[in-house]
Design goal:
The chain has 440 residues and is of the alpha/beta class. It has 18 helices and 13 strands. It is globular, with a radius of gyration of 23 Å.
Length: 440
């Protein structure tokens, strides 16, 4: 049996190199991406072995329900130590990450490379900085170079921060990111409008860039909606008394641009309905500064700092609002944007990161120049004047998600990429075999 026939006769075996996964390590975008990617690949018949750091004991129940949830459908779950710092140094702070992540990536690469050399996998796929260790080993091993390697850098916030101190602090990360992804056969851009970022920031050959979107699980998002929770939120936040309800979701940090939105809303005070309400979901170090800014702008009475919500509360709240505003200064693919769209909400969002692939002027909302108060105020004004179109905009947003950014669609694209790389390897192997036969 030749290589191509052998691959068609059995499922594709994938080593997924990551650090965290939902629900073992939290609820963030990367954690959910890894969970849904491996879940949907296994549903398509792939045999996936997931590499992550050990589970957080604070998130595990006594009977390991979280581990069982992740293991469902997986071929294997391999856990590798991440935190090598002292108890007095936050493992994921700037300093902690500088120490922990490179060593974790190296240990991860060593373990995965040993298994790959033994023939355990057909494809190796890394997430974020996990590409570095395996990429370094692969570059020096012809056997591993014959095995397709796919790398996904995600949002690359280390390359986008306007904070000079963070820019300097993350210099080693940027070098490791760039090196690891240059070793891959394909580096994934999560949006068509950001595909040029990989050659620009990482030095990846443009011919090796593949566009595969980040995605959301539609059924999961809509399944969180709960009628009783909706009713409690309406009462708690006094939503029945509002003329129009605006919503923003994100960490209360400078890069999320909420200070820009407060300035824009302050300029629109005379044009907004008398009982407008802006709900800001999230916590962070900028909360006090944002509250002070809102008071100075004279709009504090219209703003509710909601704090953190769990999944059921957040997705139930999406159903209660009228317009979602995402004024971020820089962004990756933007999970918040997709969540708002699947809940059929119109959007006013920054033309940053992958958002222009999701929000289209006059179709499901408006795009705004990042950090531009005047432009944000102008687009909010346009959106408010077009309120009669909001239901149609919401339906268009949901259609875009289901057709392009839902996990079944994205998992099939990922599996097709694996198959393309494996077919190319098989063709190369046949050509090399014929060449050797001719020489003999």
């Amino acid at each position: 049996m030749n290589i191509a026939s052998s691959l068609q006769a059995r499922p594709i075996r994938v080593a997924m190199l990551a650090r965290v996964v939902f629900p073992l390590h939290g609820y963030g975008g990367i954690e959910r991406h890894v969970f849904h990617l491996v879940t949907h690949l296994t549903r398509l018949g792939a045999v996936v072995t997931l590499y992550v750091q050990p589970a957080d004991p604070r998130r595990q129940t006594a009977d390991d329900e979280a581990t069982r949830a992740v293991m469902h459908g997986l071929h294997g779950l391999i856990q590798i130590r991440y935190d090598y710092t002292s108890p007095w140094l936050a493992p994921n702070g700037v300093a902690g990450r500088q120490l922990n992540y490179p060593w974790y990536s190296w240990q991860l690469g060593c373990v995965a490379a040993r298994a790959a050399r033994s023939g355990a996998y057909d494809v190796v796929h890394s997430q974020g900085l996990c590409a570095t260790g395996y990429g370094f080993i692969r570059a020096r091993d012809p056997l591993l170079r014959a095995l397709p390697f796919v790398a996904n850098p995600h949002g690359m916030e280390e390359f986008r921060t306007p904070d000079r101190r963070k820019w300097l602090a993350y210099a080693p990360f940027r070098a490791l990111y760039a090196y690891g992804h240059r070793q891959a056969d394909r580096a994934i851009a999560t949006d068509a409008c950001t595909r040029d970022d990989l050659p620009r920031y990482l030095g990846v050959d443009p011919g090796r860039v593949a566009v595969i979107p980040s995605a959301i699980d539609v059924d999961e998002c809509l399944g969180y909606v709960n009628a009783d929770v909706r009713a409690r939120l309406r009462e708690r936040l006094n939503l029945d008394a509002a003329d129009v309800i605006l919503l923003s979701v994100g960490r209360l940090e400078q890069n999320k641009g909420f200070h820009v939105l407060i300035a824009a809303l302050g300029r629109l005070r005379a044009e907004l309905p008398p009982r407008w309400r802006w709900l800001l979901v999230g916590d962070g170090k900028e909360r006090a500064a944002l509250e002070s800014q809102a008071r100075q702008a004279g709009i504090a009475g219209h703003i509710v700092f909601v704090g953190r919500l769990d999944d059921t509360e957040l997705h139930s709240l999406y159903e209660e609002v009228d317009l979602v505003i995402h004024p971020t200064l820089y962004e990756g693919s933007s999970l918040v944007t997709l969540e708002a769209m699947i809940h059929r909400k119109p959007l006013v969002a920054s033309a940053s990161g992958g958002i222009p692939d999701k929000v289209f002027d006059g179709r499901n909302g408006y795009l705004v120049r990042p950090g531009d108060v005047e432009d944000l105020a102008a687009k909010l004004r346009l959106a408010l004047h077009a309120r009669a179109h909001w239901p149609a905009w919401g339906e268009e947003g949901a259609r875009i998600v289901r057709s392009t950014f839902a996990w079944p669609v994205v998992a099939r694209q990922t599996l097709a990429l694996y198959q393309e790389l494996l077919a190319a390897r098989a063709t190369h192997a046949r050509s090399a075999s014929r060449g050797q036969a001719i020489e003999q």
